[in-house]
Amino acid sequence: MFCYQCEQTAGGTGCTKTGVCGKNEDIASLQDTLIISLKGIAAYAFHARELGARDEQVDAFMHEALFTTLTNVDFDLNRHIGLVLKAGEMNLRAMEILDKAHVERFGAPVPTPVSTGTKAGPGILITGHDLLDLYELLKQTEGTGINIYTHGEMLPAHAYPELKKFPHLAGNYGSAWQNQKTEFEQFSGAILGTTNCVLIPKESYRERMFTCGIAGLPGVTHIKDRDFTPVIEKAKSLPPLPEKAGITLTTGFHHGAVLGLADKVIAAVKAGKIRHFFLVGGCDGVKKSRNYYTEFVEKVPRDCVVLTLGCGKYKFNYLDLGDIDGIPRLLDMGQCNNAYSAIQVALALAEAFNCSVNELPLSLVLSWFEQKAVSILLTLFHLGVQNIRIGPSAPAFLTPNVLKVLQDNYNLKLITTPEQDLKEILG
């Protein structure tokens, strides 16, 4: 453990074995888990509030949970476990209100092919997660001759009817967050960062990068009140992008779209044409061990379907997995918050087959990295989902005892090798 939140901390530097207050490493671990999950909940609730949606229970829980982590408030391991699971419940509510707010404002996503090439002419690249920022940018660039490109978790924006109606939403450029220093350097236009997943820029593109909303970077112009005039003027002054061909990615398999295929999916399962579903998603990252997820999807048998979401999909979303009776074998459900869509699909399938989610031919193989992923994992625990595999390594804030509780109660597992995990899942 490491805690330095009070004045009495050991040696004036930090408590590392047990707290001066009396808390042990397991309580400290659960408090860290709770605080980290609150960050993820805050991200989804923030976006929902921007669109006019809020949930009083989520707001109240944020206060309760933070208060609980103060010094000398709660030393009970079971109460902390209960709060951590309640965080999963509140995150589910936050994702639900955000999903509804997105659909009400921008329409229900539909499967949409997206080009990864560029068009000749000036361009602006937008990264992050905020669809409202993208919508305002698209409105303000209408008729200017500037093409707008999405990056990272903005890829699913192409599937929303109110966003895809803009003809100058030209395509998706680049991949996940960790590659942006190389990708942004090679992009000749202006760049706009809207939320998390931005990195401190290289000098080579700092003067043509901007932030807005919650995001901020040193030495980078910050846009206020969504007045993107400086971004537009910078894009006009920069060298135009070349005409360049790219591959096509397909996104937009929101739960509404997937459930529209429910009859075909159920028939294919009953006919033995679909043996198993895999949800392979989460965060991307720099560790070479994350190549596991590419290899896993490549090795998934052809009678199986892969659902994905989050930026972890960039490890394999360029693969052509084909289809089963017209059902694509790779279904990109959207951003990390669209884990809500995956949950809705799982619940609907469980109802159709008259079984529990844990009895479905469905396995979750998740890539962990940042705080929102923790919130989603806790949501799955709140729903009682078992046999989840996470990787490439366990979060550092989980003590062996806390990890054991999760393993004993939910059969949480760390990934091993694609071959071994597939053999264990499929038999």
UniProtKB/TrEMBL annotation:
Gene3D superfamilies: 1.20.1270.20, 3.40.50.2030
Origin superkingdom: Bacteria
Binding residue positions for [4Fe-4S] cluster: 3, 6, 15, 21
Cellular component aspect of the GO annotation: cytoplasm
Binding site residues for hybrid [4Fe-2O-2S] cluster: 129, 153, 197, 283, 311, 336, 370, 372
Database matches in CDD domains: HCP
EC numbers for this chain: 1.7.99.1
Subcellular localization(s) per the UniProt record: Cytoplasm
Catalytic activity annotation: A + NH4(+) + H2O = hydroxylamine + AH2 + H(+)
Assigned keywords, A-Z: 4Fe-4S, Cytoplasm, Iron, Iron-sulfur, Metal-binding, Oxidoreductase
Any GO MF annotation of the entry: peroxidase activity
Cofactor, how bound (note): Binds 1 hybrid [4Fe-2O-2S] cluster. Binds 1 [4Fe-4S] cluster.
Gene Ontology biological process terms, A to Z: response to hydrogen peroxide
Cofactor annotation: hybrid [4Fe-2O-2S] cluster; [4Fe-4S] cluster
InterPro entries linked: HCP/CODH, Hydroxylam_reduct, Prismane-like_a/b-sand, Prismane-like_sf, Prismane_a-bundle
Family: Belongs to the HCP family.
Reported function: Catalyzes the reduction of hydroxylamine to form NH(3) and H(2)O.
Name of the protein described by the UniProt record: Hydroxylamine reductase
UniProt organism field: Desulfotomaculum copahuensis
Origin organism lineage: Bacteria, Bacillati, Bacillota, Clostridia, Eubacteriales
Gene of this entry: hcp
